[in-house]
User: What shape does this take?
Amino acid sequence: FPIVTPLLAVPVYLIPVLSGIPITLETVAVLGRLTAALIIGFSGGFLYLLLKKHFFNHQDPAKSEKMSLLLTFIYLFATINFAHISQALWQHGTVQLFTILALLSLFDKKIFLTGLFFGLMILTRPTAGVVVALLSLFYLIKNVFLDKSLKDAKSKWKKASRFCLLILLGILPSVLFFLWYNSAYYFSIANQGYADQIFTEWRGRFPEGFLGIWISPSKGILIYSPVLIFSLYGAYLAFKKWSRNLHHITFFSIIIVHILVYGKWKHWFGGWSFGYRMASDILPFFILLLVPAVLNLKIADFWPLNSKSQESREDSGSKKPHLCLYIFWISLIYSIFVQLYGIVFYDGMWHAAYDLGDVNTTWLWSIRNSEFAFNIRRVLVALGLRSSAF
Assistant: This one.
């Protein structure tokens, strides 16, 4: 399988190895978890920069920082990034990191650098090709075809060609590395983890896989991170003023297409994992879609509720917080609680007890035997209030 995540881990492993620390299962586990946490941590830092520089830059500095920090906090601690992706060397954290860096470069109009991160995204997880294609299309539409400063077809074609060339040049190093590495170490570019799965493992049933990634009791995005329902609200707001929100519409399209693709995969539920692992690649786009939602809800005006902000609202005659604002905070608190629950409970026992594989997927829709219900029964057993968790 792709080795980009292990390559990022080399600096973390290097110092203990050179220091002569014994290589044991415990050492490897600690270093792997440390690396994964660093990858997600750096992703959060770059996401904060992206939000503050390109999405809240029209706000006053205090509100910009406040909202950027809030959405970064949601990204880090109200999604399975906290409970699962930051706990082991998955590919998902790495592809999120490179996705955020690609977005930062794209909005800065550093096209070659964007292509470089696009290549690393695809090298990390080939399904990132969906994201690369749609983001490239977005850039071409917004900055070429809708650019009123380009008066004729020739100038549009020239700018589009330059963009495509720089993107391809940026992707080229990843392609060359892939060809060299697989040929040198595995004797053939076809001898790698996904080669025998590309055309044979798309056994997921539509719409079950698509809906399951959203609402399955034991795997659904909106079950494990209900605060992300406001991402859908953000998409709704973007479509209402689509001409000014082409980037947000693109982010929503990426989410829908990505989940449609993974909904057809045999393990759309992510195998033995906590929550919506297969959809975690696109968490940055869920967070970016929260931007129009939190702006519309005017969260910056009601958080934190200190005396100074209260006085300014009273002086301006501003309204009380809307009901949706309370729902937002409740869903956020619940999402964080779910991640803490995952930290405490996830050990694979639920999968061992109920996982029937990808042919019979009824176990993924059971509420009584869902992961939540099972772990509640485990607590009751520990308290002596129940004899069995099954």
Remarks:
- The radius of gyration is 23 Å.
- The chain has a mean pLDDT of 90.
- Residues 216 and 365 are 6 Å apart (CA to CA).
- The first helix runs from residue 4 to 18.
